[in-house]
Q: What sequence folds into this?
């Protein structure tokens, strides 16, 4: 019996220690575990940045939009769930995009959607 213990026990300990995640090396980190990505852009009218204009994000045309206000520089940034999105822009007066842009947001992706406003007077 002592012979079995002396042969079997060290092998079992080696097996358990060899499979341990505490072997001194850190476990690999996943590159990304996010469910969405970032969309950035600039809202312009006549080529000039449009401060305080809105970028409007919808999954479908009939959906209520998620509104993101542009900074003083006309730029915006938003984190969105992965998937297809329609993007419009407006400035709250008479200016808006003539048709929506589309973007497919990928998990951990970075996407740019610049918007040009048209004004109807």
A:
């Amino acid at each position: 019996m002592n012979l079995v213990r002396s042969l079997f026990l060290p092998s079992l300990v080696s097996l358990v220690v060899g499979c341990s995640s505490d072997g001194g090396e850190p476990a690999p980190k996943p590159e990304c575990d996010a469910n969405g990505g970032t969309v950035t852009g600039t809202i312009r009218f006549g080529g000039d940045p449009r401060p305080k204009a809105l970028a409007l994000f919808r999954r479908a045309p009939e959906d209520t939009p998620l509104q993101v206000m542009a900074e003083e520089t006309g730029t915006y940034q938003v984190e969105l769930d992965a998937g297809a999105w329609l993007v419009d822009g407006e400035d709250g007066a008479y200016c808006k995009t003539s048709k929506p842009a589309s973007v497919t947001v990928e998990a951990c992706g970075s996407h740019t959607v610049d918007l040009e406003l048209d004004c109807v007077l």
Notes: The radius of gyration is 27 Å. The domain at 36-114 is CATH 2.60.40.1120 (Immunoglobulin-like).
